[in-house]
Sequence to fold (158 residues):
Amino acid sequence: MDKALPADGGNHPDALLAKIRRANDLDRQGRIQAARVLYEDVLTRSREHLDEDQFRDRATAAALNLQGVLRRQGDSAAAVALLEDLLARLWRAVGDDNVESLIAEHNLAVIVRAGGNLPRARELAAASLQRRRRVFGDDHQHTASSRQFLEETIAWDS
Fold:
């Protein structure tokens, strides 16, 4: 653990944000394992409080960064499992029409496609597009992004 952080790590959202920022710095420095440890700690401390906005923001940020670390370490399966778990927790805590849920769902489709599972990516992308249309409408940038991603996935899967 980094000596600049409190010994107990802190569960306050500001302490968790500081850890995410430190992990980002470590990741940029190439200290990927040290970054992973901090992201995992933030995720562990925050994911049980996903009904609270600041904790949900921290958990989502930590999970998205951690999945990138896992993929760079060659563990795409763990990255997918991580986002599947986050998405399930978000759906239970705030529903499937919450912005963080919609972002996590889209990112799961992206990671699944990057891992080469095009049929599953296509299924996830279609579900994501459907929810984004319902929540944001057809003309919103998130909906357009999902539509484009689905079209690309279909083209790759053909």
